[in-house]
Design brief:
The chain is of the alpha/beta class. The chain contains eight helices and twelve strands. It folds into two domains: 8-129, 3-Layer(aba) Sandwich (Rossmann fold); 133-229, Winged helix-like DNA-binding domain superfamily/Winged helix DNA-binding domain (Arc Repressor Mutant, subunit A, Orthogonal Bundle). Strands 2-1-3-4-5 form a five-stranded parallel β-sheet, sandwiched between helices. A four-stranded antiparallel β-sheet has the order 6-7-8-9, covered by helices on one side. The mean pLDDT is 87.
Amino acid sequence: MTNTEQLSILLVEDDPNLRLILQDFLELMQYKTHTASDGLAGLAVFRNHTIHLCILDVMLPKMDGFALAQEIRKHSPNIPIIFLTAKSQKEDRLMGFQLGCDDYITKPFSTDELHLRIKAVMRRCIKQLQEDEKFQLGKFRFDSKNLLLHSDFGDQKLTRKEAALLKLLCTHKNQVLTRDEALHSIWGDNDYFIGRSMDVFIVKLRKYLREDPDVSITNVHGVGFKLEVKD
């Protein structure tokens, strides 16, 4: 979306009272808001409208929020997603971040907090997508803006978070990228759940780069990671 375009939000929440309160608040904040009360209806709304950000309750009838997010990401791999949930179990938060969600808010929460989270997520997303840089990594050519990793082995389409993490590693090539810097730059926070999620993304990037033995991502114990490229 452009900076002047009205933000269009999909809100999927099965509690009718909370859905109405959030819809009224989002519209008061000048967001164009589409709503649904279950996962299947939410998917239909997503497919029939231009959506820039999704706010999904985890516990939804017909299709839960995690399954809905996976279906949405099949059509739009880089769309920002915020999960809403009354659950606080580690497994749920880990699942959300490993699916690539941009934030995770536990109920009850204030509308002001939600508004701040939306603005922070969109700020990070727009910044990551607008940065137009290309990098040569051994046999790989990385186009960060178009989220593509090119090589003679084939092209790999990256998610927005994969591309943002790889770009950050590229800007620190052959240097240590601390966990704290990566977490704050890409996720805007640093906690146990997001850290575990980042480890999953590191594993994925290693898999994409494994065809070239001169390119590797190594762990720097207790500090962070290093993208090592042999010239």
